[in-house]
Amino acid sequence: MECSPDTGRCYVPGVCGNGELEPGEECDDGNTASGDGCRGDCQSLERCGNGQLDLGEQCDCGDSRGNVRDPGCQGQANSSLEGVCRTDCRLHCGDGELHGDELCDGELLGTSCVGLGFDRGQISCNESCIPETEACDLIGWRRETIGIENIYALWGTAADNIYAVGEETPEDPYFIHHYDGSQWRNIEARFGNDCAPPVWDCVALYGVWGLGPDSIYALGDKGLVLHRSPAGVWNQLDIGVRATLRAIWGTAEDNIYLVGHAGDDGPTLLHYDGARWRSLAAELPALPAPVHLDGIAGHGADDIYAVGVVGSSDEGVVLHYDGSAWRTVAAADASYLAHVHAAADGHTLAVGLHGYIAERQPDGSFREVSERLSDGLIGAWSSDARQAFAVGRSGDILFSDGTAWEPVHSGVSVRLETVWGIAREVLVAAGWNGTLLHYRHQSWLPTPRPSDTDLRDLWASDLHIVYAVGNDVFRYRDGAWTAMGADLGVKLHSILGRSSGELMVGGRDGVIGYYRDGTWTTVAGGTGAGGRIHALWESASGHVFAVGFPQDSSLGYVMQCQGNACAAAAGWKGRVLTDASALYDVWGSSERDVYAVGENGTVLHYDGDGWTRIETGTEEHLFGVWGADDGTLYAVGDRATILRREGGQWTEMALPYAAARFSWMPEVQLRSVWGSGPEDVYVAGNRDGLLLHYDGAGWAPVRTDTDQPLLRLWGRSQSRAGEHDVDVFIAGESGTVLRLIKRL
């Protein structure tokens, strides 16, 4: 204990908190608490700029006196303009302002991923103020290349457990690759052959399949069969044949079948009973020539299909095993069949040469179900009858939703050999030159133009019958557009398909045309010459609203009809809204909850009794309106205006003006809006193919591969058995029609 002669205080020497400033201390205020001007260890006066991290500070890189101590400060003192730390000892990164060496600062940069090799999304900013593309996404098929010369087969059990097999080369002797959810890696699987010169004893694997993650088979040239045991070891199996093996399938370890090209003993069809492999060639029905079998699949031990070709001809063959015997199955006009796929729901699909696609019918036969859209199809996969893919030559990928097959843009021209997936979780296609494509569950479908006229609206009865309007009504069916010859004498601006199968269109001079039983009639013309019907909408109960403006006026005009009365002029009632400007779009959740938008920021609401004007705070012209099931409402218009009503409040949404490609965004007209939900909304604009998407976090451009102005969106969303399908149709100038499909 010591006592100070100056103060008379006695204290324990050499202890922080004794109230005496002693050697080695910066301060001592008589306690060991921090935040009171002297840090609890007596080593800091807790002044921002002293180079020490004190209570309440995010950083302290010192001041201009050169007391930088923290190596994380990178030798720079506190600064309001640069460095790590601000002069108030707060971090520059995260303050929402761009300083010094920062590349970004904030949750979203507002910069489009388009132009960086992506199709949609916004670049985000991480906690280190470095841009990231994690939120960027691709539409359609994403190409990868792995270390196999040619890939012939794919199979897996999950999105993080996929196998690819193919061709061995001297440069790359690995012909089995595995995907673990993040990367592909090769698997050591060499079995005595010498692929190097001068021997050139190279082999290829053409099939891969398993009973689960612990028992996997691969097979190929010269009777080669490999098996991966539960221990993860690949072993070669002796099956007693040297023929080229093409496919394998089974129901259990003691019930496995494999097929291949014909050998000296006839067709190659072997069965494994858990003890030995046995040829079933003698049990097959008599055929006019040796049969080469390329595919096998089934729905159970008593429902198995094998497909191939008869001899050197192009004649396809289908064999079926019912648990007791193999029999041929009728497959009219079948070309060389390269693959058969059996889905869990009973859907059975076979594909082959010349684009042949056949499905099993209730009587067990196979019937061709599509026009031939490819020179040759080699692989196929389906989750069920409503989602099927086929791949083939020249990068061909075809898709069916259960009603029709259509081509899908793959982005490649190489031969595709195989496609495989798991329900809606993962889909992969692969082929020559190591090409491997991952599907992003959304894709642009190639759609021809119906004409060179500007198209101002469209509607689809299903994915394969689409209607569009311009100077006529055009119908897309069976892969081609035809003009319907509406002959209504005016340019058309809107179209509506009714649940009864009839069509309505609206256009200039207030004309409304009605299509029934193959005949067009004019049922309304209430606006007079110079007026216009811009949009049509129908409630679930059949109540139809039409909006526009009357002759020689900039006021709003509304017409209504109900049910079958809409087919006659007497069924329509119209009125001019003197407190509203010209109207451009209409949408509702029911006939008692309808919204119309138009010039000078006009937003109107109809409650079943009358129309009421709603103030939103904008005077911009509004061209589109749409609402989600949760009550969220969107309206879009001039100068890139997007309004959202949520909880009764209208707000203007921020857009990614910083996107270089869309630097003109503030000048653009947004013409239409549609979504499948409040976090999946699309907006089309009248410049350079502008399409924006809102994902719940922000708006970002979407690649459309067109420079035409886009004028109208129409879409539909369906949820079935936990699966969500979204189909978006877009109409634009010069006959532009775009279709985006999403399978989630």
From TrEMBL:
UniProt keyword Signal, yes or no: yes
InterPro entries given in the database record: Myxo_disulph_rpt (IPR011936)
Keywords on record: Disulfide bond, Repeat, Signal
Superkingdom field: Bacteria
Entry-linked NCBIfam families: myxo_disulf_rpt
The protein's name in its UniProt record: Cysteine-rich repeat protein
Organism: Haliangium ochraceum (strain DSM 14365 / JCM 11303 / SMP-2)
Taxonomic placement: Bacteria, Pseudomonadati, Myxococcota, Polyangia, Haliangiales
